[in-house]
């Protein structure tokens, strides 16, 4: 490689490589030194010449140069085999294992195969199947559930309000390292979980358990599996408030469940300063200044069908005890808490570790007697208020002459000052810092392809690989020629003449290995070009960026990379003209060309034609601070023409701002002052070419006070002054004295004096992947995608270009609003617009059809036109449906009223398969009733009730037709219940069936949706659930009944109300009072009855026009309902026995279809198909607010956790709306598309609360 000068000696350091390449290398690691095998490089490669520290996991910086390696430890116990360890040796082992440190977290994250819990306020992992059952208390469980709120269970969770704001015990099995109202929505932290059986992790867990249980049967415990859950930087739930800034406090903690076939031990790990908040405020009383401390402990839950309280164990009882979690422990290691929580042998309750006192000869491992309660059922072990600073320390455990770090344990409660890094015996380093929010694991793609990523205590940074330089995000090959492109714009006053130019071309060429920079600005007006010749800083910026570096100093690009802003202010003398120059670098282009935008604004002196500009060599001092470089200088220049020689000057102030990498500031220090030495500089304007040129030769090095041209600096290595003979595409490597070698830069090969381009494409040195083509370029190559493909982030791989989106779905269409038109997709980007029924136009503009003007109603009826529809009502003295009116003063018959009610329910236009009662000329029920023209028919009696056994299929006449004998066999499908899975789910009504849609947290598990119950011939509208008896209740407007069915397998529907109904719609169940309420829009009534149909009575039958939705606050005993009377819509309320009736809302509402009571916020919320809004108000009608103002056509709505779920008649699906943001977060569209009606939420447990009985 080298040709000029002797070969470098071993200690002849390549300075740039020392600065950028040997990150984390120990000093003196060039050889083994007889110390055994070198440590492997990250990634598993070994080097015979270098010893590498393991790559940090979370912000760990490698030890400083010269630091000894961690002391070796015995290998971990393997599963199935454990040897007893003497107590003193165990204590020494614990000190060695933890280096005197407190709790650090076991390794976690995506790289360890962890799964992530979805972001949100109350999310669940769903059932995590374990490879073998886990003992908990006296039972064994094959699955675990992880919840956002710092809790793990062996079964799915009830609603959040049933446990998150209550004290222990819970009524379900619970393992709670930090039970509180945690919220990870909006990127506020991450929750990881996995099951692990690797020897590395099991060994670490075993040591920690043995440290806490040294003298019991646990000393022989060797886990075969571990379940690890990590809450990283999670935040407390906060109610949105404009007046308060959101808290920035976050917590990090970890729970480890280690188990074998017979026992389970739990470890709760709280790293130093990992807990920044200690409790949360309950949602139900968020405006009250009340904060509940986090609960830490274990609960067996209810143990039998009598729901008797099982055993439980509490670690904390107040805020101070929560604060002590990371300062103290029960294992002798601050922040590490160990518990025996399950066994196949007798275990009455959780058994905590009891190590915390200073060992003595008589008792090497003691107990935290002062902090442990003796209660067999509930123990609070952290109530003591330990001081933070005043701590008495015991004498060291080791001989004072030993070289190892001495670990001091305090007297009394175990509070240890410790470093934040834990080095384990298994060759991995882990740490935690509460400010660590970004790591290489998720952000390495931000680094250049020629860089590596390093985690530091407060974040990650990118660093260029050896033989490259830059700031890590942008790296260029050392020694290579660089090109810059850009545009220049100006608004100048030259003398007194204004000159403007815009986006003229700038090109620069830099020979980095000798510090030469050439700049050319094309097509600039002659007057401005001559006046700008003295302003060499325009091109001087590029010289500073790529200046030749002297040892220990760095040029500009090594600091700023390819994104920065250069501001320059120049004041000319003697005329005091001032000009401002701004140069902005955007990024590196595909060919690694830097892109620069330059803008020049101000006044410059006039320079006559034919004068030349001379600028003498100069030196400038640049001052460096974080994210900024400044320089101030006074520079002279001469204008010459023949014998004329005049000298002028200008003062310049430069400021270069950029984004440095804060986490590495201490490690990547730049000298505070560097000197830029410009040895040659010239400026020239060519009239013929209309090109302004600058040429500069400069280098970067130390500041020399008092330098003068007469000083003799002594011999300078040719690499530092550019006098070497290396090729322009080679790096000059300085040796001793004046010796040097030449080495072709990356992408070139040769002897260093002569280098030729390597064709990476032809020689298969490229990394272009599938679907891409390699294109060679000088010193490099690029990957271009084939037709139909596009590059991904790594710029090497190509993926197919996705097909064009559907404009009808992504909103790019130009059709009228969805309530007036529909968009029809024709493939690609093509679509057409069609007006809906009841509207006319070209689809882009649709206007309402006035059916009244077309005479659709009977001449004896009053017609009312509505958007997209119309209605007819017979005038006084007539009766009928408005389409047909017959004389007579009598009121409508039952058949006619029901027919009119259903027609209004269908919006005036029923589908061909929907049921509309068939009335004869006298208004009585026709004996034959059918679902439109579907062929599904049945017989009815004079009251319209179905005659059992008369249902017929299409093509089979029913027996109620004249002269037709009843069929002998009439098989019909049995409407059995298909039982749902356990957990929380939604039920929705869809015509003749009730659908099941499970939730994972608050996410819709659409792939698991199915039909719960098929009800042929029904139209299910209202829907609710009794959580006590696990029964679903519904109204059927086709059968005019109220029904119910158990969710047990094979259960059949039961009709509980079958008389006195016309059009039963909304339904609400009060599980406390065992009562149900329903609305009847045909009879304009609101009724109530016991859940078995008994004790039925009318609550209201006056001042109602179209009652629809109904909701009950069972805890407070209040009832709410909507009336979508088009002339005066309203929402009303009363007590559950009908007292204190009053209007809650009657302003700015249109068609309030859906209504729900939100138990979290105690708000009554409604979905309005007229105003298209989802709104909420307090039970007294105050505090009204809009959650969403762009709904389609909502019908029914239910509240669960931090979401609303509503059925929609435009989308024919279930829509999820976030309560806090109002965003539509998800939707489920059943395969069978038809209108969805009622919706309700079903969860494993009934809501809690005190009942306000009103009987």
UniProtKB/TrEMBL annotation:
Biased composition (Pro residues): 61-77, 955-974
Pfam families xrefs: cEGF, EGF_3, EGF_CA, G2F, Ldl_recept_b, NIDO, Thyroglobulin_1
Occurrences of domain NIDO (ranges): 177-344
Domain Thyroglobulin type-1 residue range list: 892-960
One GO-annotated biological process of the protein: cell-matrix adhesion
GO cellular component, one term: basement membrane
Residue ranges annotated for the Nidogen G2 beta-barrel domain, each copy included: 480-710
GO molecular function: calcium ion binding; Wnt receptor activity; Wnt-protein binding
Cellular compartments annotated: Secreted, Extracellular space, Extracellular matrix, Basement membrane
Full protein name: Nidogen 2
Source organism of the structure: Pelusios castaneus (West African mud turtle)
């Amino acid at each position: 490689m080298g040709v000029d000068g002797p070969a470098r000696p071993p200690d002849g350091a390549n300075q740039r490589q020392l600065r950028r390449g040997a990150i984390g290398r120990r000093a003196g690691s060039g050889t083994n030194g007889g110390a055994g095998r070198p440590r492997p490089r990250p990634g598993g490669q070994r080097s015979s010449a270098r010893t590498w520290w393991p790559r940090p996991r979370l912000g760990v910086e490698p030890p400083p140069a010269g630091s000894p390696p961690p002391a070796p430890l015995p290998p971990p116990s393997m599963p199935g085999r454990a040897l007893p360890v003497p107590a003193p040796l165990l204590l020494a082992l614990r000190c060695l294992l933890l280096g005197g440190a407190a709790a650090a977290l076991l390794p976690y994250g995506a790289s360890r195969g962890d799964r992530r819990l979805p972001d949100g306020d109350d999310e669940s992992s769903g059932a995590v199947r374990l490879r073998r059952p886990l003992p908990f208390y006296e039972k064994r469980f094959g699955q675990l559930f992880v919840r956002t709120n710092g809790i793990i269970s062996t079964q799915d969770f009830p609603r959040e309000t049933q446990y998150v704001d209550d004290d222990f015990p819970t009524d379900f099995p619970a393992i709670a390292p930090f039970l509180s109202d945690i919220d990870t929505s909006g990127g506020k932290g991450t929750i990881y979980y996995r099951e692990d059986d690797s020897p590395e992790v099991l060994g670490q867990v075993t040591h920690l358990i043995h440290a806490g249980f040294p003298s019991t049967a646990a000393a022989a415990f060797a886990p075969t599996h571990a379940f690890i859950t990590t809450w990283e930087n999670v935040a407390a739930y906060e109610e949105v408030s404009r007046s308060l800034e959101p808290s920035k406090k976050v917590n990090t903690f970890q729970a480890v469940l280690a188990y074998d076939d017979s026992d389970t031990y739990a470890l709760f790990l709280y790293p130093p300063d990992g807990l920044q908040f200690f409790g949360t405020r309950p949602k139900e009383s968020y405006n009250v200044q009340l904060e509940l401390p986090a609960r830490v402990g274990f609960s067996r839950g209810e143990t039998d069908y009598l729901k008797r309280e099982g055993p439980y164990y509490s670690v904390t009882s107040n805020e101070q005890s929560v604060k002590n979690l990371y300062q103290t422990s029960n294992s002798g290691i601050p922040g590490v808490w160990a518990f025996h929580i399950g066994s196949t042998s007798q275990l009455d309750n959780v058994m905590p570790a009891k190590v915390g006192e200073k060992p003595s000869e008589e008792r090497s491992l003691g107990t935290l007697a002062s902090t442990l309660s003796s209660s067999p059922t509930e123990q609070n072990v952290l109530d003591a208020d330990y001081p933070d600073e005043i701590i008495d320390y015991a004498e060291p455990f080791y001989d004072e002459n030993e070289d190892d770090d001495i670990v001091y344990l305090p007297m009394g409660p175990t509070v240890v000052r410790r470093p934040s890094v834990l080095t384990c015996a298994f060759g991995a380093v882990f740490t935690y810092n509460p400010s660590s929010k970004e790591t290489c694991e998720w952000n390495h793609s931000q680094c250049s392809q020629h860089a590596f990523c390093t985690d530091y205590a407060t974040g990650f940074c990118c660093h260029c690989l050896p033989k490259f330089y830059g700031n890590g995000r942008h790296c260029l090959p050392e020694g290579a020629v660089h090109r810059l492109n850009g545009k220049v714009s100006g608004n100048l006053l030259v003398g007194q003449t204004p000159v403007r130019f815009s986006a003229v071309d700038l090109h620069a060429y830099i020979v980095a290995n000798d510090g030469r920079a050439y700049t050319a600005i094309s097509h600039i007006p002659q007057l401005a070009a001559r006046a700008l010749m003295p302003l060499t800083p325009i091109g001087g910026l590029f010289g500073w960026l790529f200046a030749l570096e002297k040892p220990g100093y760095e040029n500009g690009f090594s600091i700023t990379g390819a994104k920065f802003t250069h501001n320059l202010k120049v004041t000319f003398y003697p005329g005091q003209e001032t000009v401002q120059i701004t140069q902005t670098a955007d990024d590196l282009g595909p060919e690694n060309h830097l892109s620069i935008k330059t803008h020049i604004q101000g006044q410059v002196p006039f320079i006559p034609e034919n004068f030349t500009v001379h600028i003498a060599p100069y030196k400038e001092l640049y001052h460096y601070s974080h994210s900024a470089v400044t320089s101030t200088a006074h520079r002279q220049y001469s204008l010459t023409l023949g014998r004329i020689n005049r000298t002028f000057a200008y003062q310049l102030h430069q400021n270069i701002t950029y984004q440095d990498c804060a986490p590495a500031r201490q490690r990547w220090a730049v000298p505070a002052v560097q000197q830029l030495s410009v040895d040659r500089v010239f400026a020239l304007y060519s009239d013929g070419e209309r090109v302004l040129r600058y040429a500069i030769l400069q280098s970067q090095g130390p500041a020399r006070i008092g330098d003068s041209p007469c000083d003799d600096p002594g011999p300078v290595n040719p690499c530092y002054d550019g006098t070497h003979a290396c090729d322009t595409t080679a790096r000059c490597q300085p040796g001793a004295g004046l010796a040097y070698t030449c080495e072709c830069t990356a992408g070139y090969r040769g002897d260093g004096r002569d280098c030729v381009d390597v064709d990476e494409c032809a020689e298969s040195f490229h990394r272009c992947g599938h679907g891409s083509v390699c294109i060679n370029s000088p010193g490099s190559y690029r990957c271009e995608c084939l037709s139909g493909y596009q590059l991904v982030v790594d710029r090497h791989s190509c993926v197919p270009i996705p097909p064009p989106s559907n404009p009808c779905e992504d909103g790019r269409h130009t059709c009228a609003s969805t309530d007036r038109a529909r968009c029809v997709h024709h493939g690609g980007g093509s679509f057409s617009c069609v007006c809906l029924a009841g509207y006319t136009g070209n689809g882009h503009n649709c206007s309402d059809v006035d059916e009244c003007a077309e005479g659709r109603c009977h001449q004896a009826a009053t017609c009312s036109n509505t958007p997209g529809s119309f209605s007819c009502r017979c005038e006084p003295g007539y009766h009928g449906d408005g389409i047909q009116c017959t004389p007579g003063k009598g009121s409508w018959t039952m058949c006619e009223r029901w027919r009119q009610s259903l027609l209004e329910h269908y919006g005036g236009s029923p589908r061909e398969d929907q049921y509309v009662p068939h009335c004869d000329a006298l208004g009585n029920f026709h004996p034959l009733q059918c679902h439109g023209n579907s062929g599904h028919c049945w017989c009815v009696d004079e009251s319209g009730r179905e005659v059992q056994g008369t249902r017929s299929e299409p093509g089979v006449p029913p027996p109620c037709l004249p002269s037709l004998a009843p069929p002998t066999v009439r098989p019909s499908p049995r409407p059995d219940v298909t039982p749902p899975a356990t957990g929380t789910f939604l039920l929705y009504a869809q015509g003749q069936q009730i659908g099941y849609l499970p939730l994972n947290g608050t996410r819709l598990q659409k792939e698991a949706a199915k039909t719960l119950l098929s009800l042929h011939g029904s139209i299910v509208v209202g829907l609710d659930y009794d959580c006590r008896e696990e029964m679903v209740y519904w109204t059927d407007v086709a059968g005019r009944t109220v029904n119910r069915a158990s969710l047990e397998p094979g259960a059949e529907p039961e009709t509980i109300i079958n008389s006195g109904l016309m059009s039963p719609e909304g339904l609400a169940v009060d599980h406390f009072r065992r009562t149900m309420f329903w609305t009847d829009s045909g009879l304009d009534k609101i009724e109530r009855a016991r859940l078995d149909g008994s004790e039925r009575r009318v609550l209201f039958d006056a001042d109602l026009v179209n009652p629809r939705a109904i909701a009950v606050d069972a805890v407070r005993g209040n009832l709410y309902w909507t009336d979508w009377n088009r002339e005066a819509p309203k929402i009303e309320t009363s007590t559950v026995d009908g007292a204190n009736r009053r209007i809650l809302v009657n302003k700015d509402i249109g068609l309030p279809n859906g209504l729900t009571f939100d138990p979290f916020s105690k708000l009554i919320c409604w979905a309005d198909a007229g105003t298209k809004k989802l709104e909420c108000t307090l039970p007294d009608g105050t505090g009204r607010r809009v959650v969403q103002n762009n709904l389609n056509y909502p019908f029914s709505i239910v509240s669960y956790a931090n979401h609303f779920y509503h059925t929609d008649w435009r989308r024919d699906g279930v829509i999820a709306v976030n309560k806090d943001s109002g965003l539509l977060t998800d939707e489920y569209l059943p395969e069978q598309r038809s209108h969805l009606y009622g919706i309700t939420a079903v969860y494993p447990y009934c809501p809690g609360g005190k009942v306000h009985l009103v009987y």
